[in-house]
Amino acid sequence: MIDIQAIRKDFPLLQQKIYNRPVVYFDNAATTQKPQIVINTINEYYQKYNSNIHRGVHFLSEKTTEAYENARQIIKNYINASFQHEVIFTSGTTESINLVAFSFGEKYIKQDDEVIISQLEHHSNIVPWQMMCERKGAKIKVIPATYNGDLDIAALERLFSDKTKIVCVNHVSNSLGIINPIEKIIQISHSHNVPVLIDGAQGIQHQPVDVNKLDCDFYAFSGHKIYGPTGIGVLYGKEKWLNEMPPYKSGGNMIKTVTFEKTIYNDLPFKYEAGTSNFIGAIGLGAAIKYIENIGKQNIFDYEEMLLHYVSEKISKVPGIRIYGTSDNKICVISFLIENIHHFDTGIMLDKMDIAVRTGNHCNQPTMKFYGIEGTVRASLSFYNTIEEIDYFVESLLQVKKIFA
Ligand code: PLP
């Protein structure tokens, strides 16, 4: 069980009134709020210890280097990676996927090869693969979805050929909140000897992630969506791939030796961390993961599931509402339209009522096209949201309906 009132006090932004009342923050899929401990950790490191990592022999540099590597260790344990050096710090999910698309593509993909992605991907798990395919003369194949937002796994089986080089799917779809059967997708792909990248941007904060058990080859996520700072993210990769692939960016830190004739790259994980990384962001992300662990992952997931059942039941009573993504395998995301009301209008009206939701295509244009719509209103909840906020949200939707009638 979680103590919701105590938890809410940990998040200073939630105490804030935007117009007349404390904000109801239902835009957690876009970014999450930060607990005080994360803000304090970042402040503390800037105020007391700021100094570049892996470069100095002085106290300050050793202190930040130790904290940075400790954050890597925290993340390694959180996702149950085999080695600390399988955790690469990036700027976020987008960069993690770009890294794999570039480096894996350079090494393994050639003319006429195929990459499998799904109908329901975020643009960050489409465009990097498209760019790589254009470079290499390879092509993309798409796993179709069913109308309720599940992927058609039987169709996946039929997409494989001897040209398939990698499968890239999201753990949880950001516009619909549907949890994909990634265990099954990995198992099927591996039976064809094809590695799998999981875009975990919407997964890791709501679902257990054990990369060893999953046996995924890559898992990407963003710090800011898991209560950590912006500008920091993670790419987990199996040691074998990370060792074999060429680096994605080059410069300082990623080298062992440099002469004008030749550069020898550094060992993992530094081979993929060229330049000064966002080390204070990484330290802040470590603090965020510790915070989650203190509350208890399972407590969080159970509470969020209770919120999902409550909001699904309540919102279904709003006349003229249409929910997109009705599969049972969901996180607490409700993507919807109200009959005859444009999603932007709903979003603007809700904002005036101190409710923050996301409107638009959610960087999922192919998903919107699949449903024949331009966009939706998306309410995405987190473990600091409450039943009372859901009640107020649904009452506000009824108000919006009345105003537009
Ligand atoms: N993938 C998914 C499923 C997402 O929801 C997002 C962001 O919303 C991203 C990738 C990109 O994440 P970021 O912008 O943090 O790199």
Describe this structure in words.
This protein is of the alpha/beta class and 405 residues long. It folds into two domains: 4-30 and 296-403, Aspartate Aminotransferase, domain 1, CATH 3.90.1150.10; 40-293, Aspartate Aminotransferase, domain 2 (3-Layer(aba) Sandwich). The chain is built from 14 helices and 15 strands. It has helices at residues 4-9, 36-49, 59-79, 93-108, 127-136, 153-159, 182-191, 211-214, 239-244, 279-295, 297-315, 343-352, 365-371, 387-404; strands at residues 24-25, 87-90, 114-118, 139-143, 164-170, 196-199, 218-222, 233-237, 255-258, 263-265, 321-324, 333-338, 355-356, 358-360, 376-380. The strands form four sheets. The protein has a seven-stranded mixed β-sheet with strand order 2-8-7-6-5-3-4, with helices on both faces. Strands 11-12-15-14 form a four-stranded antiparallel β-sheet, covered by helices on one side. The longest helix is centred in the first third of the chain and has 21 residues, at 59-79. The chain is globular and about 75 Å long. The site of pyridoxal-5'-phosphate has 12 residues, from helix 4. Pyridoxal-5'-phosphate (PLP) binds at residues 92-94, 122, 124-125, 170, 174, 199, 201-202, 222.
Euclidean distance between termini CA atoms: 42 Å
* SS field, number of helical segments: 14
Portion of residues in beta strands equals 15-25%
The CATH homologous superfamily of the largest domain is called Type I PLP-dependent aspartate aminotransferase-like (Major domain)
Report the helical percentage: 40-55%
Radius of gyration: 22 Å
Structurally, the number of domains stands at: 2
- Along the chain, the helix and strand elements come as HEHHEHEHEHEHEHEEHEEHHEEHEEHEH
> What is the number of strand segments?
15
Poorly predicted runs of 5 or more residues: none
- Could you name the CATH class of the largest domain? Alpha Beta
- Average pLDDT: 97
Identify the strand order in the major beta sheet: 2-8-7-6-5-3-4
What small ligands are held by the chains? Answer: pyridoxal-5'-phosphate
Main pleated sheet: 7 strands, mixed
What is the CATH topology of the largest domain? Aspartate Aminotransferase, domain 2
Inertia-based shape: globular
Second rung of CATH, namely the architecture of the largest domain? 3-Layer(aba) Sandwich
Q: Based on helices, strands and strand pairing, what is the structural class? A: alpha/beta
